[in-house]
Amino acid sequence: MLDINGLSVRVGGQAVLDGVTTRVDDGELVYLLGRNGTGKTTLLRTICGVIPASSGRILIDGKRFTDLDAPSTVIGMHLGMDGAHPGHTARRHLTWLARAGGIPTGRVAEVLDLVGLTDAAGRRVVDYSLGMRQRLGIAAALLGDARTLILDEPVNGLDIDGIRWLRGLLRDLADEGRRLLIASHHLDEVARTADRVVVLDSGHVAADAPLTEFIGGHTDLEEAYLATVAEKPTAGVTV
């Protein structure tokens, strides 16, 4: 289980997250929703140990990130499409990650095939399309075969075939018993696959409920979401 309790984060003296509490259980596909600047990316980066928490607790399989013996095999992360050196090939990038994380390099070929990049594995990342870079980032997240997966806007840049592929992949991963937390603005995709949604608004949890319960008596997910968040611009740090 991924367990987040009372998490607060301050950036430049300003509160970006304030008392965030939620969890992701085994086999759950949970989407993190919210306007730009409400703290979604900060939450994901804090879970992954990139940003320090000001207070609160994050446990992954009962351990803090800093106490994990082999983090790459416990939590897989895709936090943006700029993680690979543009001059490297996809194969070289993933091989470097595998060696750094203590993962058998034979896993590289497996994830390249899983994300559909086998034929392009020898091409430099600088020559990749946006969608191909998304696939490479997802491959990196899957490299350690982790049970906890954190993805930040993985649909961006994918064409219709890529979106359908990702939709099936995410559902399959959850059905295998993995736990997934995904930030997304694509409500159509959320409505198709989510088990539960967590809505952030101004750094607080505005809603946390199973998808069907969250939609409730509203016409659709979009209407339920708009009814949940305040209709006002978000001020402060955009994260």
UniProtKB/TrEMBL annotation:
Superkingdom assignment: Bacteria
Q: Which residues form a coiled coil?
A: none
For this protein, the record's InterPro entries field holds: AAA+_ATPase, ABC_transporter-like_ATP-bd, ABC_transporter-like_CS, P-loop_NTPase
ABC transporter domain location is 2-227
Q: Name one GO molecular function term.
A: ATP binding
Q: Which UniProt keywords apply?
A: ATP-binding, Nucleotide-binding, Transport
Q: Which Gene3D superfamilies match?
A: P-loop containing nucleotide triphosphate hydrolases (3.40.50.300)
The regions listed as transmembrane in this protein's record are none
Family statement: Belongs to the ABC transporter superfamily.
For this entry, the protein name equals ATP-binding cassette domain-containing protein
Which organism encodes this protein? Gordonia westfalica
